[in-house]
Specification:
By secondary structure, this protein is an all-alpha fold. The protein has seven helices and no strands.
Length: 179
Amino acid sequence: MEFRVDPDTWFVFSILFISGLGLFIVGFIAIPFILRKKQMKRLQFKFDRKTNRYEELEKKISNRGKTQLEINNQRLKSDLKVSLREILRSNRQELETLTFFSDFEKIYPNFTNSLQEKIPNITANEIKLCALLRMNLSAKEVGIILNITPESVNKARYRLRKKIGLTAKDDLDLFILNA
């Protein structure tokens, strides 16, 4: 029994076998590649969603922190105004004045540093005067707090304007508010 294969059949069989093998290899490589690509898209989507959630939470937390700081700042400002009224009414000024200036430093923490940067040779009394001017107090109220006359307050304002180098047209209060 002799087994003979026709060359045409052999050729067709070879082509089919090689095509099947090629499809198997392509399927073995292409399908995992496509699945990995879809999985990467899903992971990227999840990562982006988590990142967005994280950013939203950070914004909420920072907004809460800002609002809490604003509330605390308003409370301190009102407490500062109350302590300022008490200083103006009472005679025990020295201790209350010290607490006033410590509260003022809590509300405006960079005020003294920025004044010292803009005016390097500023004295401690001039800083106190600027702090009181920052609170929009009149010369009479500043005089009561610093235990000097209103004329002395005006002279101190004039000397401060001169030290800063402001002209007659420039506003000292505006300069202090921007400090």
